[in-house]
Amino acid sequence: MKILLLEDDYLYKVTIKDFLEANEYVVDDYDDGLEALNAIYENSYALLLLDIRVPNFDGYEILKDIRANGVQTPVIMLTSLTDIENLSLGYDLGCSDYLRKPFELKELKYRIEYIIKTHNFKSSENLIKIDEVYSFDTKTKTLLKNEKSIELGAYGIELVSYLVQNRGRYVSLNTLQNVVWEGKDISYADIRMCVKRVREKCDKDFISNKKMVGYKIG
């Protein structure tokens, strides 16, 4: 999952980037607003972390520009500003949240996870497009292949649902055990068998895996 980070304080930028990459995010970092704006239009990001006071284009100008051009990627503003006028401006322009400096990196992690999850599931039709073939209905928890539903069974659909929430990012077997199976005493072999059954109903590469890391969709 790719994130754009705009921060002109070198130590802040390096610290945040290292932390996010340690949590398996891909991070493109910039310290110039105009360069960041160009990157937003040239790439696809799951989230934008925008410092307000940066050279050339400040965070507010970037936010205003991308919203005017239909880019709805969620945005967290990073700022040391505290007055209500500045905070309300960001929300009026369409930011998702503020994070006031200095902040704990764990707080950043939790806010990112929450915002990405809510953004991915915010759809008037409750439909998430996974690729050209597959989509997922979040309301009915139904996986669709070329608009036709696929029967996956209770754990299969919960597995797919959680991977879709975290699409593009590997999820460990331990996390799947705790979330999908709610910590029940099952083996990793049981989880792998569930993945195998989903693949048999879909395509072999619908769920990809990385040894010692986990599984992902997208």
List the helices and strands and how they pair.
Blueprint lengths: L1 E5 L3 H13 L3 E5 L2 H10 L4 E5 L7 H10 L6 E5 L4 H10 L3 E4 L4 H16 L6 E3 L4 E4 L4 E4 L2 E3 L3 H12 L7 H7 L8 H14 L6 E3 L3 E3 L2
CATH class wording of the largest domain: Alpha Beta
- Strand percent estimate: 15-25%
Instruction: Assign a percent range to the helix content.
Output: 40-55%
- Backbone structural class: alpha/beta
* Gap between N and C termini: 9 Å
Most strands sheet: 5 strands, parallel
The total strand number stands at 11
Q: List the domain count as a whole number.
A: 2
Q: Which stretches are low in confidence, meaning pLDDT under 50 for 5 or more residues running?
A: none
What can you tell me about this protein's structure?
It is a single chain. The protein has 218 residues and is α/β, with parallel strands linked by helices. The chain has 2 domains: 2-120, Rossmann fold (3-Layer(aba) Sandwich), CATH 3.40.50; 127-216, Orthogonal Bundle (Arc Repressor Mutant, subunit A), CATH 1.10.10.10. The chain is built from 8 helices and 11 strands. The strands form 3 sheets. It has a 5-stranded parallel β-sheet with strand order 2-1-3-4-5, with helices on both faces. A 4-stranded antiparallel β-sheet has the order 6-7-8-9, with helices on one face. The mean pLDDT is 86.
